[in-house]
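Board notes (copied after class):
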Amino acid sequence: MKRNNLRQLCVAVSGALLMSMGANAMADSTDDIINALIAKGVLTEEEGALLMKGRTGEKEAAEAKKKTAVSAKYKDGIVLESGDGKNSLAVNGRVHFDSRGYDYDSSDKGAVAPGATGADTFDIRRARIGAKYKFGDFYSGEIVFNGVGGAPVLDTAFLNIAWWKPVQFRVGQFKMPFSLEQLTSSNNIDFVERSYVDAYIPAKEIGAMVHGSPTKGVTYGLALSNGNGQNGTETDVSVDSKDIIGRVTANLAEIMDNKNMVLHGGLAYAKGDVSKRDGEAAFGEDRRTEGRGVGFFDAPDVGVVNGVSNAIDRSRLGMEAAAAYGPVKLQAQWMKAGYDYKANATQSVDEDINAWYAQALWTITGESWADRYKEGAFGALKPKNEFDPVSFKGGAWEVGARYSKFDASDFTKPAA
């Protein structure tokens, strides 16, 4: 009788002990204790099995609770994430402050476009706030608003569907598959402003896209868009067509499994009709220097003529290349934008704009460019050592140079 009472006491004590050990970290230890008590004869096999069963239920409940629990952390923004990592919401933003100063003579500021005179100024270049989201195993997206220039304007808004990783779908307003420089975030571009090439490519537009990486080191994207720029919709029923835009890239270094290099090449093409009624939108904005200074090219305003098609047949071709080893990168791009339309009943116009750049960069602090490259574009630089404002040490430092060329000489020629 005493032995039975002792056994019941041990069972009660061990049961209370098990109930108090709710943490997942103690799960294995608890199982070991039960097995040890069974081995010493303190518990019978049946009593041990009963405790094990109770413990299994607790584990399952704890695991289920963990999956639905929401945690907060900071990773490139404030992130709320479910315990299983399948659902998350990351809120982030950026503010880019710019100070521009020029050394121009009054003669340099002659007949230039208003607002492009190269005047010394402070500027809020970008002010964006948005959220990236992910839910389930297959769905993700982003919504961003830009507050520069007055009332907030929708910058990006899309849903990405990845039922199959090599063939994903995207709908909304997003960056079209064209140009290595454009597909690199403004937070991560190599210089303060993008090059002349960027002015004539399809950037953020409303449309739909299929994209993915069918094999290691290779990416593709094929999109249909309105072709009227950011937040642009079709406005002319007589020219109701979509732009088709495609890009394919290959990183030979990744294909050869070389993790220290990038050997990137890409080709992009876009074609579609744009309406003469869109005026400057057909040819891009007036051009000024890359430092947003003096204007040097006025985009033509093609008038609508009765009995003549309103359509401008626009085609754009782009080529890109980047070679990087360790902290050194060479990058170049070239593009050609062609415009073919009827000026009047008898005159046809076929004009081209060509632009290209070549640049070289060196990350002095030694961070590798290969670490920043993913799926056909460069991402954020992660410093080896965070910057310490007290000791003024750490951080990442780069130096670079870029040469750019812009050629719109076709627009000075008379129509055929």
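Comment from the instructor: The longest helix spans residues 45-68. The helical segments are 2-20, 27-39, 45-68, 180-183, 252-255.
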